[in-house]
Amino acid sequence: MKANPGLANTDLRFWYLIHRTRDAFRICEDQIFSKHGLSTEQYAVLATMKYLGNPTRPTAIARWLERSTNSMSLMIERMVRAGLIKRVRDKSDRRVVQLTITSKGESALRPATLAGLEFIQKVLSPLSYEDRHTLVALLDTLKYEASKYMNPGETTQEMMGSRAPRQADLMKRLVQYTSSSASEAKR
Amino acid sequence: MKANPGLANTDLRFWYLIHRTRDAFRICEDQIFSKHGLSTEQYAVLATMKYLGNPTRPTAIARWLERSTNSMSLMIERMVRAGLIKRVRDKSDRRVVQLTITSKGESALRPATLAGLEFIQKVLSPLSYEDRHTLVALLDTLKYEASKYMNPGETTQEMMGSRAPRQADLMKRLVQYTSSSASEAKR
Hints:
globular, Arc Repressor Mutant, subunit A, 7 helices, homodimer
């Protein structure tokens, strides 16, 4: 496939924007979560543990966040020392270590989740409902195309099959979680 | 502003996708640029030097890439040792150090740029011309909203004024650069 300079301007602008938009989001998230004593990565670990259910195996968190087991171990060690999570033994197999969120972790995660969701809604507020749907559909296509580029052998079904239901579930759980946080905040 | 769980599903999906789409792009880019002996960050430095003109001051590169001067110094040191760039003295003020791309750097940057552009065009290929324009406009809005969130004091003009012309220029230069590379590749 030949690069076509005539068509390239919008494509280059997209290339630049996909990186810089996410960078800008990351800077905002760092600000928001640090107000609740969490790094953005620590927030991602706690939120993932919330979605996947309690207690959670470290390997499941690493898989969900697409992180190596090594870098996940370091992060978990730091979060245990910070008192955000703790290690527990699996009741059915005591050799297996699992993780649970501590009450300190919970009391950071709840307001951080609400603050993050408020940020996303604020940033998205100039976009109509239709625009948001279009944006999600376009990003979905691009993420899929990039995965195909990385794994040319895999079929569509293999790529979509394993993630789609888990993502839907993630969304449902996070919405439930934030609405229970919201009603608690009202009390 | 109150988080509204009823509206949240598309918004959460966007939040997830903006991070994961860019992650997927980054993994592809790492693969592509490493074939030309460059890390993605080294590629970004070389491409920025190309846009900003030759020779370039380290601070100008850091500003463009929104990196700290410290982390930029480390990266530049490594790239000088790898023979991709070299330090030169400014002719009008010999105290000022500037950087130029070496011929080794040039011969990595040219094919890497073409390969990167081919990747972007391939990934964008299922999207119509209109969809690409819509996507760029939506991302532009979101990047602007995120900047506003980070810097609530700045006016629109301050935020847009400094970057918009430089971005347009960047695009023009990269297109010129890739088309000269493409015609060289044909020879």
